[in-house]
Every structure is written in C-alpha cells, then in structure tokens.
C-alpha cells in the first residue's frame, strides 16, 4: 500500500535528522505533523535548544531567519520561500536608520517581525510575549525607538508608562479585527471573556479583558475558569485552542483575520522541503553576528 504523505514526512524527517517547528497560525494539518507548535519566542527557544541538524520551519520567513540567526550551524529550511510578512516589508532598514540619525542617543527595540538587517541595527529584539518585559529591562529615562509595529508599541507604552518613539508599521491581518466585531460577539456571548493580540488596534485592545501573545492565549485558555472565550487574533490559533480545551468554546473575533502568508505552507511543500533540503535560510555572517546580540536578549528575557 502506498504510504500517506504524513508517513512519508515522518520517515524522511527521521532520515534527515530533522525536526519540524510550526507556528500557532499554521494550517491544522501542518500543526499536527510538527514536533513543536508555538509562538515565535517558543519556536526560537526550541530551535536554539534542539540537537537536530535540520529544522523545517513552518511559519513566515522572518521566523525561519530568526532561527537561523540563533543556530548558524543548523540547516533551517522554509517550505515556501514566498511566505513573507507584510509588516516586515513595510519596515526597511533605511527607515530605522533615519530614525536613529534623528535620535542619536536612543536605544532600539525591534519586534521580531522585522528583517535581519533591522535586527542588526537594534539593541534589543522582542516578541509580543515579552515586549513589556524587554522595555521594562531598559533603564528609565532612556529614549526608546520601538520598531516597526505601532500597535504593539502603543500597547507596550500604555503598560510601562514609557513614551516610545514609534514607526508606522502594522499587521494587515490583525487590523481587520474591528471594535464592532468584539462588541457584537460580546452581545451574542455575554459570558465570554475577550482575549486579543497586541497587534490589534488600540480600540480593540481597549475592549479586551486580556491582551496576550498567542502562547499567552493558549496558557490563559487552559488556566482560566471561563468556558467561553472570544479570540482576537489570526484564526489559525483556533485549532490549538480547541484541541487543547475540548470542553471550552472559542469564537474568532473576525473570520477575516486570516494571514495568507501563514497558509502557504502545506504538507506537500513540507515533504518537498525535506526531499530537496530547500529553501535554506541563511543570513550573511556580518549581519547575523550583529543581529544575534539583539535576538539573544529576546530569548534570554525570561518572563513570557
Ligand atoms: O510572536 C509570534 O509568534 C506572533 C507573530 C504572534 C504571537 O503573539 O504569538
Ligand atoms: Fe505578519 Fe500579521 Fe501574518 Fe503575523 S499575522 S505573519 S504579523 S502579516
């Protein structure tokens, strides 16, 4: 009998000495084949700690690039090299250099959703799971440029009381979640708690009970006593939430919050990636070494 695609992926993964890492926004079947599913902070930590020589990274390009920055001796493969992130693309390093030139004393905190070149020009990198902690670790009175997500940046400013210098970047998927969506769902499910991602607009964040990274949402959903939750982030997270909490009900804040780039990875190209050992993500060493200093600080900032 012909082997299923899942069996073929498993067998080849074994032969290559590979592990498969998948982001929380990946397609359900991709999450189910992965050795580990998580947010970019968890995935970066897994990549760094793994003994495997090959990492198949099921997520968007900057995430695979971050793994490669952390693990230059491993082969980091992305099954579809076109899986980009528009927030990264709207934030070229030249814009950061201009901001730095205007504020020579400022410290730069960049969101992990950024290019390797931007990370190389940053003092700290953070994810949505530890952005508040990273900013709080910086001495008060220091001027901080937060690049490139203005919504995450304004959320962090509100939590820390720091005034951050922001860039005009944002996630086109999360801005599709509207305050009106949350208000309607709250009316339909009066007992439900609302958790949203800090990439959402400030109006949406203002309506939420909790503002959390996807890893934080998974933890909160498990630990809270609510049986119904309205979830304001990319819809891919629903798979994990429902799988891990079969007794609870989850309502997506918006069915329109789909990231097309996250859906570019499927079982076919995961298998292809292992067969061809492609596409290998590598960062030129001069850039990598500088970016690694910022990324190491992100991985080491413990609270998540
Ligand atoms: O950091 C990540 O993995 C992203 C993009 C979302 C989240 O908060 O988990
Ligand atoms: Fe980028 Fe938004 Fe997609 Fe995340 S959900 S990869 S921030 S476009």
Structure commentary:
The structure is a single chain. The chain has helices spanning 5-16, 28-33, 40-49, 61-70, 86-89, 93-102, 116-120, 131-136, 150-160, 179-188, 202-206, 214-223, 237-244, 267-276, 285-300, and strands at 18-23, 36-38, 54-58, 75-77, 107-111, 124-126, 144-147, 164-166, 193-196, 210-211, 228-232, 249-252. The strands form three sheets. The chain has a four-stranded parallel sheet, with helices on both faces. Helix 13 links the parallel strand 11 (228-232) and strand 12. The chain contains 15 helices and twelve strands. Helix 1 (5-16) runs parallel beside helix 14 and helix 12 (214-223) packs parallel to helix 13 (237-244). (~{Z})-2-methylbut-2-enedioic acid (CIZ) is lined by residues 23-24, 39-40, 112, 127-128, 197, 213-215.
Low-pLDDT windows of residues: none
Can you list the ligands bound to this structure? Answer: (~{Z})-2-methylbut-2-enedioic acid, iron/sulfur cluster
Q: Write down the CATH topology of the largest domain.
A: Rossmann fold
The string of secondary-structure elements, in order, is HEHEHEHEHHEHEHEHEHEHEHEHEHH
Describe the global form.
globular
Number of domains: 3
| Count of alpha/pi helices | 15
Distance between the termini: 46 Å
Derived from helix and strand composition plus strand pairing, the structural class reads alpha/beta
* Annotated CATH architecture of the largest domain: 3-Layer(aba) Sandwich
Strand order of the largest sheet: 2-1-3-4
Number of strands: 12
- Report Rg: 19 Å
Oligomer: single chain
| The level-1 CATH class of the largest domain | Alpha Beta
Residue fraction in strands: 15-25%
What's the CATH H-level homologous superfamily of the largest domain? NadA-like
Overall pLDDT score:
97
Largest sheet: 4 strands, parallel
What helical percentage do the residues reach? Answer: 40-55%
